[in-house]
Amino acid sequence: MSYVEEVYANLQEKHVNEPEFLEAAKRVLDTIAPAVAENEEKYRSVSLLERLVEPERIVTFRVPWVDDAGKTQVNLGYRVQFNSAIGPYKGGLRFDKTVNQSVLKFLGFEQIFKNSLTGLPIGGGKGGSDFNPKGRSDAEVMRFCQSFMTELYKYIGANEDVPAGDMGVGGREIGYLYGQYKRITNLYEGVLTGKGLSFGGSLARPEATGYGLVYITDEMVKGAGKELKDKVIVVSGSGNVAQYAIQKAEQLGAKVVTCSDRNGYIYDPDGIKFDVVCEIKQQHRASLAEYVEKVPTAQFFPGEQPWGVKCDIALPCATQNEINGAAAKKLINNGCWCVAEGANMPSDADAIDAYEEARKANGFLYMPGKAANAGGVATSALEMSQNSERLSWTFEEVDSKLQGIMAGIYAKVAEAAGRYSDKDDFVTGANIAGFLKVADAMVAQGNV
What we know:
Helix content is 50%, strand content 15%. It is built from 17 helices and 12 strands. α1 (3-14) runs antiparallel to α2 (19-38) and α8 (205-223) crosses α16. It is globular and about 55 Å long.
């Protein structure tokens, strides 16, 4: 049994009730095996993989808060501080009923390699709560956030752990969390990212993940000798990532024909209207079904996903495991030749197997989320830099740095893919490129 297989077998035995985390760990360990084999004796001698797959710290706590009816509610709060070898823990807070320790460990583990790929000094972490802000009043959300931060503040700081937003945590929640942190600590520091522009936020942060996704997709397409202009793109989701991916793709000359939410998906053969989606989702917080009332050429497909729509490129931007094996095959059979992930692990294992089969057969392009959606955390790190310098950069400055970071990620991924596998095996390339930097730092810092 190889070192990688031994580590995963032990992990599986210890964490049998954490399927999401085990799935993520297996995917990474399997693909970094060639790099581990090159230095197996050294890595074994310092138990590198055993340390890599276990978080440095997990904090779990109750979050009591009072709803508008005066009743006390109790949720669970978490922070998984996974790895700080290359910088302070960095990763979002997720407020959603699906949140549990396994989900946050999977997200935090992925975050280690994503953050490493950016080239910026940030480690990996993730956190959140099973609280669902949907349907809650602003006052209820504020009371929850204040209670959540009253415990979390003990474990975070500008040079220790810098959370950001994620699913269910947008500008409103970040504002309430930051206000409570400042109130308790009397510190005005860059402890959270995704802040409002009036109190230390960065221009281009809302756009960053979606823009970065399209920038790296453009690099992939160019690397294959093609161009983004006039390509038909299918997007899932309708949050920040999806919205700004739509905007940037259309700015670069592509045509995005779908977006979706929990109620179904919109198909607009003339191209999705970015302004209409923003109005529905940012201003009204309503269902995408409203889109067809404003755009007569569009159709709404309730309860369905857009993976049967004919396209050149698919950008899944909704949630994990939204594309299964059957959906992936449907995409490929309909002419899709490129998938880049805007969400965290939106393709399940069967879907990734289908991409890999298509890659070997005809050069199908697939960029995993740890590389493709790294633009958000990269710009969060740029926000940290601005906070440290007490400066605010222009939108153009931040956007230019983001473009450079995404081009750099593509270059690192492609180089590692070519060295350890095939030049277009971006899954192996992303995992190994992210792993090597973290592994070198862990070895250098000793048994900690």
